[in-house]
C-alpha cells in the first residue's frame, strides 16, 4: 500500500549461501523424515498444509516481495482447482495433465485479469483484485451446470492417478505434496536471491525510483503476479487432485484473506514464513476448536496480538533481531 | 526575450538532446511554456531559476516522469517524446531525485547493483551476483562509500545518501545524467568533494544540473540556462549569465 | 443437469492403500500397508513419549483406556449452518443418551465426539480425517450442508470410515460419492420434490412459477420439480433464480407472470423473512396459491413479525413441527426426549425454535447405526466394512421409537432412504398437516449401485 | 408487469438500497479519509448495530415505534463505544499503519462475529418496523417504512454534513484529514480526533443497520455484504471525498436495483462487479476523486 511498507529488510551482509541452502534443504529433509514418524492425523494434515503453503508462498511473491497487496488471490487458487477438476470430470484428463492445465489456467487468469488490475496501484489494486475474484466466484455459480455451484463435485478417483500411483494413498499424497512444496520453496528461495527478486524488492520499496533506474515496473509486476498465480494455481490443482473435492468455497473471499494471514503471521518477504504461518494457523484452529467452539474468537485475538507485538511476522521479527541473513 | 549567445568554440559539438516548444500545463497553470532547449554532448549544463520557475517539471519532462502537454523531445537525434520513463533510461537518460530516494531497506551495494543490473540485463535474468557486486563496489569506491557498502542505505547519513544516489547514477553509465539539486543539505566539505566528483564524471557523461548553490554552478557549469515562469530567460556561459540584467532582475528584483 | 458418472475402475482402484490407513493403536487395528515403514519407525522410536507430550497428541495416546463406540459428530457450530447445528447437536445427544440408557451398542457405551466444521468443506474434510486418525472414531456422522458432505466424503471413502450424513442432498443417491457414505435417516431432495408435484398439481394449480436460490440446492428443486410437474400435466412457466449474495427480493417479484397459479418458493439462508415480508407487501391480499419448503424457516418462529403473509399458504415439512391431532406416540416420545414442546420450540425457551423438519434424521440415523452394528457383531474398526454391508442389507424400517418420523424404505444400492413427506398449511399461528405423501411417491430410478464398489 | 411500473419498482428498491448504503459507507469513508486506514471490521459494526437494535426493541415491548426510536439512539452509542475501545487499545498502538490495520481489523471481525454468535445465537431475528403501513400503487404494493428509510437517510446525511462543516469537532476532523502534522501544530488533539472519527464511523454503520433491520433481519453473518458494498462505494466515490461517497452510493444502489431488470440476476451481479473494477482501472482516483492519490 504505502511506500513505507518495509515489511522486511534484506540482509546487509553478502548472503552466506551455504548456510541459507543448508537451512532450506534441512527443512525439506525434516519434512521428509516426518513422513516416517508422524501419527496419521498429523501426517495427513501436514500433506494438506504443504499444499496450502504453496498457495501462501505464491501470495508472498506478490505481497511480500513485490508489495502487491492483492485481496483476490482466491481466483488463482480456484482457477487451478477448477481447471484440474473440470478436465478430470468432463475430459478424462488425469493428474499430470490436469495439474498442468490447472497451472496454465491460473497463469492465464493472471495474464488477463491480473494484467488489467495492475493498471492500478495501492488501495485501488486491492479493490480491483477483490472485485475480479468476486466475479470469478459468481461465474462459478453462473455455470452451475458444470461446476455444481456451491456444492461442488468430487474429482473422479480414476483421474487421481500420477504415473500409475494412486494420489489418494497417504504416502503418495504426502510425497507429492512434499515435491510440490520443495519446488515452490526452492523456487521462492532462488527468486528471492536472484536479480529478478532484487528488482521486485526495489519496486516494493520505491516504485518510482525503480522506474527511474530503467526498470519497466509494469512488466516486472506482471511477471511477479504471474509467478505468484502459478504457485497459487499449482496449489489449487494439487488440492483438488490430492483431496478429491472441488467447490466454490475455495473461490470465496475467505480464501483470498487466508494466504494474507498466513504470510503475515509467518513473516512477509521471508522464504520460510508462509509455510510457518500456514502450519501455525492450522494448528491454532485445530487445537482451539477442540477446546472451544469459539475458536474464531481465539484466532481473532491471536491475530490482533501478533500484529501488535510481532508486526513483521514471526520470521520477519526473527530476522530483524537474530538472523539478519535469513532470506 | 533574446538568449545570450554562447561562446563559440572551434567546432560545434554534436547535439545530445533537443526540445522544441516543450510545454506542460497543470490545470490552468503553465509550468513549462514552449521551451526550446539544446544540450551538447559532453557539456555540464546548469539549470537555474527562481523557485517555481518550472525547473523540476522541465527535467521531469526530459526524463519521462511526466508527459508534455505540447512539444517534442529528441535524444541523440531520435524522437523520445512518446517513450516511457524506463525506456528513456535505457537510452541513457538518468535522473536522480531532488528528494533522496534510495531503497532504504537495501544495502548501499544492492542499491548500486540495481543500477548496474538493469544495464547488463537481457530478458528477466541478468549477470551473476559476483560481477554485479564488483561493478557496484567500484562505483561506490568512486564516490567514497566503499567502506559502507554493506550498510542498509536507510542508516546512512544524508550526505552519504546523496553520494549513493550519484553512485547509482554512475552505475547506470548514462549518456545524460540529470541531477536535481544534488548539493542541497550538504556541508561545505561535502559540496567541495561533490564538485570534484561531478567534474570527474563529466568526462564520461553529459550532465544537466538543477542547482541553487551559485558556487557549485559557477564551479561546474560550462553553460547555464535560466528558467523563469516556465520560459527560458537566458542561456550562456557563466560569466555572461552573471552579467545579464534580465537574470538579475528575475533573481533580485523579484 | 450434468450426470456425474461413476468413474471408479470396475475392479476397484489399484489397491495401493492396504487395508486400513486409519488405524489407531487399538489392538484390532492393522497397520496401513503404506505405512509399515511409518509405523515401524514410530514404534521404533519407542519414545512416543516425546511426541505424546505435544498438545495435539494427548488424546491420541489416551484413545484406548475405555472401550466405547466412538461416533465422530461433524457439527455446524459456526458458519451459515449454525442454527441447524445446534438442534442436530441436541437431537444427537438425546438419541445417544437413550441408546446408552438401554445398554449401548453390543453392550458398549456410545461416545459422541463432536467437532465443529465451520460449515466449510475444507474444515469438514479435516474433521473427518481427525475422527478417523486421531480420535479413533468408529464412524463419522451428522453432516447437513451439501458442500460439506461432498467435500468430506472422498476423504471418508479413502480412510474407509463409514460416513452417515443427514443432509437431504441428492449427492449420495446421484452416485457422486462412495460406498462409505450413506444417508439412511432422511429422504433426499429429489425424492421430496417429486413427491410434492402430484399434490400441488391436483390441489393448487397447474401453472407454477418457481423462486429458488441460484446454487446447487435451488437447481435441484428447479430441475426435479419442473420435470415432476410436467409428468403431472402441469407446467413451470417461470424460473426465477436469486443470486447467492442477495439480501432483498422485492425487485424480483415483477418477474412473476400474472397468470401464475402457484408460487413455489425455496429460499435458504437468513433472508427468508425479508422474502416473505416483501412478497406480502408486493401482493397484498390478491395473491396466487403459495407453496414453499420449510428449509429456510427452520429455527424460525412461524409467528415472527413479517411472516403474517404466510397465513393460508402451504409448506413442505420433513416432519411436522407442531404436534398434530393424530400425533403418534413415537413422535410424542421423540419430542419429549429431545426437549421440544408441542409447538416445536425448546421446552426451556419457547423462542428457541427447532429444526424439526430435518433433525429427526440424526435420531433415526443413530438408531440405524445401532441396528447395523448389532446385526454384524461390530467389535472394532476392522468391522467397518461389515457395518456398511449390514446397513446396505436393510430395507423396511417401520414407524417406531427409532423411526418417529414414520416408516421408511432404504435402498441399499443407492445408500438412500425414502420416507413419507408432509404438507402443512399455515393457519394463523399454527402449522396444520393437510397431506401425507405415500413413500412410493418419492421413488425414482436408481442412479448408482454402490454395492458393486469394493469395500 | 409492464416495463414502466417495473422500472419504478426497481428504482424504488434501488433508492432504499442506496439510502442505507450511503449512511453505512459514509462511516467507512470518514475513517478512510481522516485516518487513512481500511477498517475491515466495518461490516461487523453494522451487524452489531442490528443485533443491538433487536435487543433494545425486544426489551422495550411497549410499541414497535418506541423500541425503534430507542434503538436509533442506543445502538450507535454502544457501537461507537466499542469502536473507541478498539481504537484506543489496538489501532492507536499500530500507529495507523495501513497494512497492520487491515490485519488487526480482520482480527476484530472474527472477535465481534464470534462474540455475537455466542451471545445472540445463529438465528436471524426480525425487528418490527415503527409503523407497518402498505401503500397500494396501481401495479403493486409498497412498504411505507421503506420510503421512510430513504427520508431518514437523507436527514442523517444532512446532519453529518452539518456536523462536519458547522461544529468544532467537524472542523478538527477536516483539519486533521488535510494534514495531520499541521493539525497537531495547531494544538488539535489528533489522537482524540482519531478516536472520535473511528467512533462516528462505527456509529454511522450502526445507524444504517438500525434503519435496515426492520426490512431485513439481524443475523451474525450479515456484515459481509455491507462491508463489500461500502468498500466499493468509498473507492468509486473517491478516497476521502464524502460527497463522492454519497454520490457513488446512489449510483451503486440504483444500478443494483435497475440492472436486475435487464439481466438474469447472477449475471447482473457479475456484470456489476466487473463494471466496478473497470471503473477503478480507468479512474483509480474514483469517479469523483479530484486527482490520483
TrEMBL record, chain A:
<feature type="transmembrane region" description="Helical">
    <location>
        <begin position="50"/>
        <end position="68"/>
    </location>
</feature>
<feature type="transmembrane region" description="Helical">
    <location>
        <begin position="172"/>
        <end position="192"/>
    </location>
</feature>
<dbReference type="InterPro" id="IPR001851">
    <property type="entry name" value="ABC_transp_permease"/>
</dbReference>
<feature type="transmembrane region" description="Helical">
    <location>
        <begin position="98"/>
        <end position="117"/>
    </location>
</feature>
<feature type="transmembrane region" description="Helical">
    <location>
        <begin position="222"/>
        <end position="248"/>
    </location>
</feature>
<protein>
    <submittedName>
        <fullName>Branched-chain amino acid ABC transporter permease</fullName>
    </submittedName>
</protein>
<keyword id="KW-1133">Transmembrane helix</keyword>
<feature type="transmembrane region" description="Helical">
    <location>
        <begin position="20"/>
        <end position="38"/>
    </location>
</feature>
<keyword id="KW-0472">Membrane</keyword>
<feature type="transmembrane region" description="Helical">
    <location>
        <begin position="290"/>
        <end position="311"/>
    </location>
</feature>
<dbReference type="GO" id="GO:0015658">
    <property type="term" value="F:branched-chain amino acid transmembrane transporter activity"/>
</dbReference>
<feature type="transmembrane region" description="Helical">
    <location>
        <begin position="260"/>
        <end position="284"/>
    </location>
</feature>
<feature type="transmembrane region" description="Helical">
    <location>
        <begin position="123"/>
        <end position="143"/>
    </location>
</feature>
<dbReference type="Pfam" id="PF02653">
    <property type="entry name" value="BPD_transp_2"/>
</dbReference>
<dbReference type="InterPro" id="IPR043428">
    <property type="entry name" value="LivM-like"/>
</dbReference>
UniProtKB/TrEMBL annotation, chain C:
<feature type="region of interest" description="Disordered">
    <location>
        <begin position="1"/>
        <end position="39"/>
    </location>
</feature>
<dbReference type="Pfam" id="PF13458">
    <property type="entry name" value="Peripla_BP_6"/>
</dbReference>
<dbReference type="InterPro" id="IPR028081">
    <property type="entry name" value="Leu-bd"/>
</dbReference>
<comment type="similarity">
    <text>Belongs to the leucine-binding protein family.</text>
</comment>
<keyword id="KW-0029">Amino-acid transport</keyword>
<dbReference type="InterPro" id="IPR028082">
    <property type="entry name" value="Peripla_BP_I"/>
</dbReference>
<protein>
    <submittedName>
        <fullName>ABC transporter substrate-binding protein</fullName>
    </submittedName>
</protein>
<dbReference type="GO" id="GO:0006865">
    <property type="term" value="P:amino acid transport"/>
</dbReference>
<dbReference type="InterPro" id="IPR051010">
    <property type="entry name" value="BCAA_transport"/>
</dbReference>
<feature type="domain" description="Leucine-binding protein">
    <location>
        <begin position="68"/>
        <end position="427"/>
    </location>
</feature>
<dbReference type="InterPro" id="IPR006311">
    <property type="entry name" value="TAT_signal"/>
</dbReference>
<keyword id="KW-0732">Signal</keyword>
<keyword id="KW-0813">Transport</keyword>
Automatic annotation (TrEMBL), chain D:
<dbReference type="InterPro" id="IPR001851">
    <property type="entry name" value="ABC_transp_permease"/>
</dbReference>
<keyword id="KW-0812">Transmembrane</keyword>
<feature type="transmembrane region" description="Helical">
    <location>
        <begin position="6"/>
        <end position="33"/>
    </location>
</feature>
<keyword id="KW-0813">Transport</keyword>
<feature type="transmembrane region" description="Helical">
    <location>
        <begin position="144"/>
        <end position="164"/>
    </location>
</feature>
<dbReference type="InterPro" id="IPR052157">
    <property type="entry name" value="BCAA_transport_permease"/>
</dbReference>
<feature type="transmembrane region" description="Helical">
    <location>
        <begin position="258"/>
        <end position="281"/>
    </location>
</feature>
<dbReference type="GO" id="GO:0022857">
    <property type="term" value="F:transmembrane transporter activity"/>
</dbReference>
<keyword id="KW-1003">Cell membrane</keyword>
<dbReference type="GO" id="GO:0006865">
    <property type="term" value="P:amino acid transport"/>
</dbReference>
<keyword id="KW-0472">Membrane</keyword>
<comment type="similarity">
    <text>Belongs to the binding-protein-dependent transport system permease family. LivHM subfamily.</text>
</comment>
<dbReference type="GO" id="GO:0005886">
    <property type="term" value="C:plasma membrane"/>
</dbReference>
<protein>
    <submittedName>
        <fullName>Branched-chain amino acid ABC transporter permease</fullName>
    </submittedName>
</protein>
<feature type="transmembrane region" description="Helical">
    <location>
        <begin position="193"/>
        <end position="215"/>
    </location>
</feature>
Amino acid at each position: 500500500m504505502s511506500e513505507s511498507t518495509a515489511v522486511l529488510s534484506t540482509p546487509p551482509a553478502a548472503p552466506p549461501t551455504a548456510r541459507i541452502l543448508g537451512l532450506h534443504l534441512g527443512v525439506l529433509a525434516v519434512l521428509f523424515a516426518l513422513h516416517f514418524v508422524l501419527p496419521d492425523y498429523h501426517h495427513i494434515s501436514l500433506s494438506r498444509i504443504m499444499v496450502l503453503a504453496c498457495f501462501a508462498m505464491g501470495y508472498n511473491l506478490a505481497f511480500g516481495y513485490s508489495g502487491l497487496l492483492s485481496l483476490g488471490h482466491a481466483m488463482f487458487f480456484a482457477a487451478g482447482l477448477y481447471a484440474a477438476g473440470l478436465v478430470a470430470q468432463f475430459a478424462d484428463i488425469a493428474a499430470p495433465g490436469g495439474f498442468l492445465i490447472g497451472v496454465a489456467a491460473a497463469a492465464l487468469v493472471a495474464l488477463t485479469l491480473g494484467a488489467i488490475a495492475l493498471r492500478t496501484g495501492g488501495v485501488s489494486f486491492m479493490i480491483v483484485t477483490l472485485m475480479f475474484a468476486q466475479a470469478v466466484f459468481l461465474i462459478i455459480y453462473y455455470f452451475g451446470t458444470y461446476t455444481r455451484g456451491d456444492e461442488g463435485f468430487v474429482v473422479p478417483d480414476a483421474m487421481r492417478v500420477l504415473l500409475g500411483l494412486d494420489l489418494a494413498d497417504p504416502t503418495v499424497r504426502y510425497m507429492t505434496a512434499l515435491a510440490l512444496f520443495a519446488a515452490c520453496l526452492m523456487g521462492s528461495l532462488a527468486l528471492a536471491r536472484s536479480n529478478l527478486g532484487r528488482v521486485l524488492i526495489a519496486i516494493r520499496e520505491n516504485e518510482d525510483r525503480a522506474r527511474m533506474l530503467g526498470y519497466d515496473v509494469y512488466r516486472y509486476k506482471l511477471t511477479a503476479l504471474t509467478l505468484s498465480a502459478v504457485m497459487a494455481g499449482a496449489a489449487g490443482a494439487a488440492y483438488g487432485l490430492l483431496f478429491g473435492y472441488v467447490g466454490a468455497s475455495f473461490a470465496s473471499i475467505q480464501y483470498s484473506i487466508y494466504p494474507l494471514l498466513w504470510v503475515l503471521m509467518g513473516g512477509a518477504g521471508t522464504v520460510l514464513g508462509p509455510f510457518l504461518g500456514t502450519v501455525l494457523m492450522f494448528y491454532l484452529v485445530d487445537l482451539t476448536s477442540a477446546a472451544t467452539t469459539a475458536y474464531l474468537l481465539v484466532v481473532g485475538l491471536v491475530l490482533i496480538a501478533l500484529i501488535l507485538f510481532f508486526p513483521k511476522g514471526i520470521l520477519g521479527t526473527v530476522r530483524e533481531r537474530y538472523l539478519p541473513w535469513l532470506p | 526575450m533574446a538568449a545570450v549567445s554562447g561562446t563559440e568554440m572551434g567546432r560545434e559539438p554534436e547535439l545530445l538532446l533537443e526540445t522544441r516548444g516543450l510545454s506542460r500545463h497543470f490545470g490552468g497553470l503553465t509550468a513549462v511554456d514552449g521551451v526550446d532547449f539544446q544540450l551538447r554532448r559532453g557539456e555540464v549544463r546548469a539549470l537555474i531559476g527562481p523557485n517555481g520557475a518550472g525547473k523540476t517539471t522541465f527535467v521531469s519532462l526530459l526524463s519521462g516522469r511526466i508527459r508534455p502537454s505540447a512539444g517534442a523531445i529528441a535524444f541523440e537525434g531520435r524522437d523520445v517524446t512518446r517513450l516511457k520513463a524506463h525506456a528513456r533510461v535505457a537510452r541513457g537518460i538518468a535522473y536522480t531525485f531532488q528528494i533522496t530516494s534510495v531503497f532504504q531497506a537495501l544495502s548501499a551495494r544492492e542499491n548500486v547493483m540495481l543500477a548496474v543490473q538493469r544495464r547488463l540485463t537481457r530478458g528477466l535474468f541478468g549477470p551473476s551476483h559476483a560481477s554485479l557486486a564488483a561493478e557496484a563496489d567500484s562505483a561506490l569506491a568512486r564516490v567514497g562509500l566503499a567502506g559502507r557498502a554493506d550498510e542498509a542505505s536507510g542508516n546512512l547519513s544524508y550526505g552519504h545518501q546523496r553520494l549513493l544516489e550519484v553512485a547509482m547514477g554512475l552505475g547506470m553509465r548514462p549518456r545524460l545524467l540529470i541531477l536535481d539539486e544534488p548539493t542541497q543539505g550538504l556541508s561545505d566539505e561535502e559540496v567541495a568533494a561533490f564538485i570534484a566528483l561531478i567534474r570527474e564524471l563529466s568526462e564520461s557523461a553529459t550532465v544537466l544540473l538543477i542547482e541553487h548553490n551559485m558556487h557549485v554552478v559557477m564551479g561546474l557549469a560550462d553553460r547555464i540556462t535560466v528558467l523563469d515562469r516556465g520560459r527560458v530567460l537566458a542561456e550562456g556561459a557563466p560569466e555572461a549569465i552573471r552579467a545579464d540584467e534580465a537574470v538579475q532582475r528575475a533573481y533580485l528584483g523579484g | 443437469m450434468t450426470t456425474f458418472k461413476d468413474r471408479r475402475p470396475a475392479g476397484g482402484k489399484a489397491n495401493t492403500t492396504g487395508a486400513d490407513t486409519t488405524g489407531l493403536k487399538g489392538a484390532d487395528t492393522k497397520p496401513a500397508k503404506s505405512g509399515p515403514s511409518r509405523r515401524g519407525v514410530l514404534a521404533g522410536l519407542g519414545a512416543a513419549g516425546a511426541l505424546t507430550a505435544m498438545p495435539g497428541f494427548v488424546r491420541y495416546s489416551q484413545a484406548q483406556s475405555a472401550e466405547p463406540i466412538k461416533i465422530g459428530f461433524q457439527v455446524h457450530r459456526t458458519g451459515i449452518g449454525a442454527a441447524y447445528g445446534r438442534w442436530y447437536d441436541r437431537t444427537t445427544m438425546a438419541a445417544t443418551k437413550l441408546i446408552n440408557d438401554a445398554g449401548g451398542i453390543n453392550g458398549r457405551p456410545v461416545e459422541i465426539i463432536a467437532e465443529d466444521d465451520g460449515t466449510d468443506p475444507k474444515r469438514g474434510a479435516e474433521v473427518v480425517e481427525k475422527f478417523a486418525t486421531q480420535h479413533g472414531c468408529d464412524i463419522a456422522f451428522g453432516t447437513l450442508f451439501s458442500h460439506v458432505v461432498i467435500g468430506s466424503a472422498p476423504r471418508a471413502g479413502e480412510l474407509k470410515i463409514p460416513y452417515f450424513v443427514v443432509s437431504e442432498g441428492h449427492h449420495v443417491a446421484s452416485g457422486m460419492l462412495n460406498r462409505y457414505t450413506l444417508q439412511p435417516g432422511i429422504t433426499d431432495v429429489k425424492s421430496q420434490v417429486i413427491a410434492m408435484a402430484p399434490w400441488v398439481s391436483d390441489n393448487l394449480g397447474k401453472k407454477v412459477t418457481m423462486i429458488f436460490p441460484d446454487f446447487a440446492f435451488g437447481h435441484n428443486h428447479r430441475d426435479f420439480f419442473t420435470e415432476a410437474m410436467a409428468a403431472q400435466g402441469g407446467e413451470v412457466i417461470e424460473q426465477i433464480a436469486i443470486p447467492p449474495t442477495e439480501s432483498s427480493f422485492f425487485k424480483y417479484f415483477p418477474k412473476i407472470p400474472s397468470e401464475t397459479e402457484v408460487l413455489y418458493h425455496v429460499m435458504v439462508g437468513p433472508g427468508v423473512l425479508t422474502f416473505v415480508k416483501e412478497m406480502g407487501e408486493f401482493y397484498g391480499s390478491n395473491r396466487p396459491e403459495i407453496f414453499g419448503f420449510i428449509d429456510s424457516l427452520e429455527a424460525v418462529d412461524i409467528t415472527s413479525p413479517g411472516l403474517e403473509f404466510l397465513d393460508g399458504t402451504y409448506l413442505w415439512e420433513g416432519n411436522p413441527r407442531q404436534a398434530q391431532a393424530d400425533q403418534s406416540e413415537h413422535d410424542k416420545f421423540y419430542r419429549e426426549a429431545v426437549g421440544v414442546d408441542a409447538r416445536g420450540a425448546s421446552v426451556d425457551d419457547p423462542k428457541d425454535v427447532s429444526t424439526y423438519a430435518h433433525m429427526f434424521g440424526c435420531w433415526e440415523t443413530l438408531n440405524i447405526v445401532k441396528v447395523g452394528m448389532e446385526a454384524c457383531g461390530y467389535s472394532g474398526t476392522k468391522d467397518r466394512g461389515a457395518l456398511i454391508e449390514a446397513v446396505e442389507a436393510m430395507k423396511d424400517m417401520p414407524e417406531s421409537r427409532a423411526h418417529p418420523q414414520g416408516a421408511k424404505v432404504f435402498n441399499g444400492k443407492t445408500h438412500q432412504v425414502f420416507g413419507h413427506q408432509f404438507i402443512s398449511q399455515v393457519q394463523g399461528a399454527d402449522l396444520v398437516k393437510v397431506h401425507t405423501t405415500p413413500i412410493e411417491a418419492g421413488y425414482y430410478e436408481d442412479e448408482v449401485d454402490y454395492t458393486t464398489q469394493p469395500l | 408487469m409492464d416495463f414502466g411500473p417495473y422500472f419504478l419498482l426497481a428504482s424504488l428498491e434501488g433508492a432504499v438500497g442506496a439510502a442505507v448504503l450511503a449512511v453505512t459507507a459514509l462511516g467507512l469513508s470518514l475513517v478512510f479519509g481522516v485516518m487513512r486506514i481500511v477498517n475491515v471490521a466495518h461490516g461487523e459494526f453494522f451487524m452489531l448495530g442490528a443485533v443491538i437494535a433487536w435487543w433494545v426493541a425486544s426489551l422495550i415491548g411497549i410499541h414497535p415505534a418506541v423500541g425503534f426510536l430507542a434503538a436509533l439512539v442506543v445502538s450507535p452509542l454502544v457501537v461507537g463505544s466499542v469502536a473507541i475501545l478498539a481504537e484506543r487499545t489496538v489501532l492507536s498502538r499500530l500507529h495507523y499503519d495501513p497494512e497492520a490495520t487491515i490485519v488487526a481489523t480482520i482480527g476484530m471481525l472474527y472477535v465481534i462475529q464470534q462474540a455475537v454468535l455466542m451471545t445472540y445465537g445463529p438465528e436471524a431475528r426480525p425487528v418490527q418496523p415503527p409503523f407497518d403501513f402498505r401503500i397500494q400503487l396501481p401495479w403493486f404494493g409498497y412498504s411505507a417504512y421503506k420510503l421512510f428509510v430513504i427520508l431518514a437517510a437523507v436527514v442523517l446525511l444532512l446532519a453529518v454534513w452539518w456536523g462536519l462543516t458547522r461544529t468544532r469537532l467537524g472542523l478538527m476532523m477536516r483539519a486533521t484529514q488535510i494534514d495531520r502534522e499541521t493539525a497537531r501544530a495547531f494544538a488539535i488533539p489528533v489522537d482524540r480526533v482519531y478516536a472520535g472519527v473511528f467512533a462516528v464511523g462505527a456509529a454511522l454503520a450502526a445507524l444504517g443497520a438500525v434503519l435496515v433491520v426492520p426490512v431485513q433481519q439481524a443475523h451474525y453473518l450479515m456484515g459481509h455484504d455491507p462491508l463489500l458494498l461500502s468498500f466499493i462505494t468509498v473507492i468509486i466515490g473517491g478516497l476521502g471525498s464524502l460527497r463522492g461517497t454519497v454520490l457513488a452510493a446512489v449510483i451503486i444502489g440504483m444500478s443494483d436495483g435497475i440492472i436486475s431488470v435487464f439481466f438474469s440476476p447472477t449475471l447482473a451481479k457479475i456484470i456489476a462487479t466487473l463494471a466496478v473494477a473497470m471503473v477503478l482501472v480507468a479512474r483509480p482516483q474514483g469517479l469523483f476523486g479530484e486527482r490520483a492519490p
